[in-house]
Amino acid sequence: MIFLWAFLVGGGICAIGQIMFDVLKLTPAHTLSILVVVGAILDGFGLYEPLIDFAGAGVTVPITSFGNSLVHGAMDEARQHGLIGVITGMFEVTSSGISAAIVFGVIGAIFFRPKG
User: Fold this and answer.
1) CA 51 to CA 45: how far, in whole Å?
2) Can you tell me where the transmembrane regions are (predicted)?
């Protein structure tokens, strides 16, 4: 049953993003930013973790999870280290994903050439 909920909830998030493109005529940057902020707001109110427990990968794979990670890391570190933890917590939690994206992007650029 978890697979069904992951599919439906993750698909719903993606459908919302597509509607933002098609109906609202938002640019990819605006859509991306809005979805990240929505994920951050949901985590700030404590609603994203129950959603992860309910839908699993359906909410951890879309870009809303990045906003969740930023706020979650900042709040955890703020509890432990105070105000400085807000700044360092965001980078501590998301650094591995961002680093992997940079490394794989460079590797892809080395091995593949654009056609044109």
Assistant:
1) 12
2) 6-24, 31-48, 54-71, 83-112
